[in-house]
Specification:
Strand 7, helix 3 (100-111) and strand 8 (116-122) form a beta-alpha-beta unit. Helix 1 (41-49) crosses helix 12 (246-257) and helix 2 crosses helix 3. The strands form two sheets. Strands 1, 2, 3, 4, 5, 7, 8, 10 and 11 form a nine-stranded mixed sheet that branches. It is built from twelve helices and eleven strands. With 279 residues, it is an alpha/beta fold.
């Protein structure tokens, strides 16, 4: 697989499609902080089979990408994505992003809306810096929660109990992703709720009802700020819905990309818990 050599990073990415494909529809996948492009293994074959061009990037310090800087500057990952699109001569793409990868997707989409056809934000707190929202996150992300082993923090109890092999594979994928474990971001909360109101492309938000880090009630705040957004909840999944329930996740995204309303989606009929009050 190819590397894109940039001044501060050797950026690894995969660019896959069917051998007989002439499609112009590309989907870029942005992974969580606990993973790499391998986080999207359950999406690889289904999306290629559905005749999408699939591009997955190893963010700085994850997977096979290598940074020469001691930290990740604010906006660097969004800049990396722009560099990849320019390198591949892609004017506009769909973006499917989860967890921390969705922080970067929001930043990229607000800076370069003309480069994003449709946007999927899954299992994410959004990297929002507004103080009242940050206070909610701070009360949710207690030291006891954050001290959990990554697989307990991100995979639902139902999945861990029913799928020990999948849990083992997730743990192995997580360990393989830690190429530069000490490489941290200068800031994670770089987005604002007002930025969400500027998103002009169709946006779908996906939550897991057992997500400890981005539960539906929290993600509803993001959906409320994005004009015309769609919102759906995948039952019995945690912070890694695309890994835990790939068939459901993939079908929801396929329907969204095909201009149909995803199953269970729609802000009006979302059966998520009552929304938190906001000022």
């Amino acid at each position: 697989m190819p590397y894109l050599e940039l001044p501060e990073v050797s950026l690894w990415y995969t660019d896959e499609r069917r051998s007989d494909s002439t499609t112009s529809e590309a989907v870029v996948f942005l992974h969580p902080d606990t993973g790499s492009s391998q986080s999207w293994t359950p999406q690889l074959l289904p999306f290629i089979t559905a005749n999408y061009r699939l591009i997955a990037i190893d963010q700085r310090g994850r997977g096979q990408s290598k940074s020469i800087l001691p930290t990740i500057p604010d906006g660097a990952c969004a800049d990396d994505l722009l560099a990849v699109l320019n390198h591949l001569d892609l004017e506009a793409v769909h973006i499917v992003a989860t967890a921390l990868g969705a922080f970067d997707a929001i930043q990229f989409a607000t800076r370069h809306p003309e480069r994003v056809t449709k946007l999927v934000l899954a299992n994410t707190a959004g990297g929002i810096s507004d103080q009242w929202y940050a206070n909610i996150v701070q009360h949710m992300w207690t030291p006891e929660i954050l001290a959990l082993p990554p697989h307990q923090l991100e995979l639902s109890p139902a999945y861990r109990g029913a799928n020990p092999e999948g849990t083992k594979a997730w743990i192995e994928m997580h360990h393989r992703s830690r190429l530069q474990p000490g490489l941290v971001r200068e800031t994670e909360a770089a987005n604002r709720l007002a930025d969400l109101e500027l998103l002009s492309m169709p946006v779908l938000l996906i939550a897991g009802d057992a997500d400890l880090l981005a539960p539906p009630r929290l993600m509803q705040h993001l959906a409320d700020r994005i004009p015309g957004s769609q919102f759906t909840v995948i039952p019995n999944t945690g912070h890694s819905s695309s890994w835990e329930a790939p068939e459901v996740f993939n079908e929801i995204v396929f329907q969204f990309l095909a201009n149909t309303v995803p199953a269970q989606a729609g802000r009006a009929d979302c059966n998520c818990p009552d929304r938190l009050e906001r000022p």
